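seq:
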Amino acid sequence: MDIRVDRNRCAGSGLCMAQVPAVFDQSDEDGKVLLNAQDPGPAVAGAVRAAAARCPSGAITLHEHDTAGH
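struct:
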């Protein structure tokens, strides 16, 4: 899974950071999302998917890796 965040779209709600703090953080300067891990691995994949789905501004996009190697 590859995670992308669009800081221009981010509303700074902090929901992603609250859900998966190992992956998402919030800027002290503007309150917008910061990415701690672009490819966090399977242990938190479900939580990352949930955080992306709950993002009120749609600032988080996910690109799943092809498990077949393609």
